[in-house]
Amino acid sequence: MRNALAAVIMMIGAGGAGGATTCSPDAVDLRGEWGQARFSVELADDAKEQQQGLMFREKMSASAGMLFVYKRPHAARFWMKNTLIPLDMLFLDRTGRVTKIAENAKPLDETPIDGGNDVLMILEINGGMVRGLGITVGSELRHPAFDSAIAAWPCQAE
After folding, report:
1. What is the mean pLDDT of the chain?
2. What residues make up the domain containing 34?
3. Helix, strand, or coil (residue 73)
């Protein structure tokens, strides 16, 4: 886990989550009282990609994740069927604020994980990263998929 955190922290130190960094569809920035972090992400923005998610993957880079983007806020329920690696799940509202966190979801477990209502996006990262970085409910996520007029941390116009 230390090596994983070091990789994310190195990205922060290199300006990965600073104000000058431009938003990109293949990355998310997170910030909160705990600090800042940047993750490269794969987008799951259609039904087929969302159904597949991170199933059958044996590993994922420490600074990587998957961002599930929905057309409208909804009640989110996830499970770990066919998912081989433990995951932390961050459930986000339409402003990009983390409203709920599920830590270290157990691989292959089919027990539903309730993300709550009004979830617009979900970020999945390696299990243990939330605790290791200190990410909390209320943290803000920046990504171009959020409506910049209401985003808690909007992307800047380029």
Report:
1. 89
2. 2-142
3. strand
Other CB atoms within a 10 A radius of the CB of residue 147 amount to 11
Residue 98 maps to which CATH number?
A: 2.60.120.1140
Pick left, alpha or beta for residue 45 (phi over 0 → left; psi -120 to 50 → alpha; otherwise beta): alpha
Question: Whose CA is closest to 136, among 1, 13, 34, 21?
Answer: 34
pLDDT digits (tens, 9 = 90+) for 43-88: 999 999 898 888 889 999 999 999 999 999 999 999 999 999 999 9
Q: Is residue 150 part of a domain?
A: no
Token pair 């880079």: residue: 61
Could you give the number of structural domains in the chain? 1
As a whole-number percent, the residues of the chain with pLDDT over 70 amount to: 85
Quick one: DSSP state of residue 12?
H
Query: In this structure, is the dihedral angle defined by the CA atoms of residues 126, 66, 79 and 116, taken in order, positive or negative?
Result: positive
The whole-model pTM stands at 0.87
Residue 18 lies in a domain: yes
Give the tokens for residue 134.
Answer: 């200190």
Query: Does residue 50 lie within any of the structural domains?
Result: yes
Q: How far, in Å, CA of 97 to CA of 73, rounded?
A: 13
pLDDT for 3 equals: 52
